[in-house]
Amino acid sequence: MIRRAIMAIIFVLGALILRAEGGDPFTYVVRRVFDGTFLQNPRDTSDALLVSAPAMWSSGNVRVSLLTNGALRPASKGSSEISGIAYWNESIVVLQRIDGRIVASVYDTGLTRKLTPDVDLSEITDLEDGAVVMTSIYAVPNSATAYLHAGRFLYRLTYDNSVLRATFIERNVLSVHAGAEQGPWELTYLHATGLSMFVSITDAAGTVLNTTLVPYATNSRLCRVGKTIAVISNLENSVSSAVSVVDRQTLSVRTRTISVSSERVDLATWNGRAVAVALTTRTGRPELIAVPIYEQYEQLPSGEFISGEFGMPLRVAVQQDTAYMLFSGGMVVMLLDGTVLSRDAFTVAGTA
Known about the structure:
By secondary structure, this protein is mainly β. Helix content is 3%, strand content 51%. It has 1 helix and 29 strands. It has a 5-stranded antiparallel beta sheet with strand order 1-29-28-27-26, with no helix packed on it. It has a 4-stranded antiparallel beta sheet with strand order 2-3-4-5. The radius of gyration is 21 Å and the shape is globular. Residues 1-20 have low confidence and may be disordered.
């Protein structure tokens, strides 16, 4: 499931030509290439949505297609302009521009409208015509409640007795993390006010539990594992990144720098400890390094070298104990202990 999700991201980048390294236990084969944003149904992986930019010769409306058991077919959405779309349990929430307003509506997974009134998202006022914002929904377990992150706006949704309601929470929300490995479910989000940046934690009922000030940076994202929260940012005019660690229990903040860009740093739990995982080329060879987040160090320790020619490293993403590393010429999947699961060379037409 996780590996299929990682590959879905790569599908939309362009045509891939794969070559597997001999001896690795896994390899990835591209069976189909899509042009657009690919959204897989989290409850049924045979269903998906494909959101494509309008063709230059068309009326300018975004195209939405349904993928069911491998068959792709267009879905008519009428004359309204789609501004965002995301799965929510057994439904789909669609953001549309109607008469200059952004509204949210509920559809089934076949994109048939459910009998519920539109909900105005009146705070979203700065979208350009034709713009489709990144839209994510974080469902609260065992509840008819979810959080909607659309562009840089955060809402709390409830859907009960065929009535959809939206409560505005925050603007300028840069990044969101939902769930908890231990303890009750929480939503953690990174948001900016002026030249200040904060991490806030909200429970399932919408109560803000804590808000903590963290160092400001224009390009930042939020990561969380267990009780450890990290804000990973690119440093201005530098190839290095800053990692600001927030302890969930004490709310203390500790910041350190790592000499790689933020796209090549992630947070993970390994051997019971929170670690920063970095993909470096400090010796001229790709090297994956896991550093305990609370330990002091003057320089990065030795890591696990990656054999093969895959080009320039672009980014790393870690799920549990598995690191997915994307290069300009391929992808490598490796456990944090150095066990290589796959090495595949491919050509990417586009950007990561």
